[in-house]
Amino acid sequence: MSINSVLKISGSIPSKKDIPIYFDLYSPSVTPGSALPVVLFVHGFKGFKDWGAFPDACEELARAGFAVVTFNLSMNGVGKSMTEFDEPDYFANQTLSQDLEDIGTVIEAIKSKDIDSDKVDLDTDRIGIIGHSRGGHTAIVAAAEYTEIQCLITWSAVADYNDRWSDKMKKDWKEKGYTEIENSRTGQVFKINKAVFDDATESADTLMAIKRVKELYIPTMFIAGKADEAVPYTNSEMLFRSCPADEKEIRLIDKTGHTFGVSHPFEDSEFPEAFEEVLDYTEGWLLEYLK
């Protein structure tokens, strides 16, 4: 099926804490003969659904015949602006538990048709998930947690988020109850409260990707850049080795980093070569195992 144009529907649903989860649903504008498989896209830490080339990537996947639901995790710190970190109090308390719960909320909203299109039918028996960086970490956990997810792809995934906490961060949390990080892109300084650390460490068996990946028997692909400066590609290698699925692959892309040559804002007419390669692998995996 060759599709040139894509339909985009935007809206929000409430999280379990009644905080908006802003979403976009991308789908082929041509009505297909059967219901479309659904792909969830999960952004990373200090990320959001409209970051860089993510919207363009979602459009490309929609052209391939998927209904793509991309969304801002409810406590990612980005509010109605969609691109600015205008909710720092939420960001300070964004736990891995809340991120996982948000994915469950999105799945339920698709099943109950709170996320829906009057142009196409969504096949809730065929749901895949893509996650970037921390979003890849959470996507792994979600795939183990929610049986609706039938296919998984990670981009630059973190293997064990508890390995990300530095000694300084732990010292800050012990002494002050919060630590601070800088967003190098915007120069903003954000607080992260101790509740985030407590959640990750006290529920590590449930929330750490390196533990939950051992439960995954669905088709799973791990993609990473060999020059990743933020999350070494060895994270993806560890996850790949620990995944018991029969259908699994790892793709390591030479001479590219954490975002595969893409930055924000993304205004180029074509994708960087590395990002195009990521999309090719991703689309091929979804076409083989979700269509």
Strand/helix succession:
EEEHEHHEHEHEEHHHEHEH
Provide the β-strand percentage band: 15-25%
> What is the helix tally?
10
What general form does the structure show? globular
Uncertain spans: none
Main sheet: strands, sense, barrel: 8 strands, mixed
Record field, number of beta strands: 10
CATH superfamily: Alpha/Beta hydrolase fold, catalytic domain
CATH architecture: 3-Layer(aba) Sandwich
Radius of gyration: 18 Å
How many angstroms separate the termini? Answer: 12 Å
Briefly note the CATH topology name. Answer: Rossmann fold
The side-by-side strand order for the widest beta sheet comes to 1-2-4-3-5-6-9-10
Q: What is the SS-derived class?
A: alpha/beta
In CATH, what is the class? Alpha Beta
Mean pLDDT: 96
Number of structural units classed as domains: 1
Q: Report helical residue fraction.
A: 25-40%
Report on the structure:
With 291 residues, this protein is α/β, with parallel strands linked by helices. It has a single domain, classed as Rossmann fold, CATH 3.40.50. The protein has helices at 54-63, 88-91, 96-111, 134-145, 167-175, 194-202, 204-207, 209-212, 234-242, 273-289; strands at residues 6-14, 20-28, 36-42, 67-71, 122-132, 149-155, 178-182, 189-193, 220-225, 248-253. Helix 3 (96-111) packs across helix 4. It is built from ten helices and ten strands. The model has no long low-confidence stretch (mean pLDDT 96).
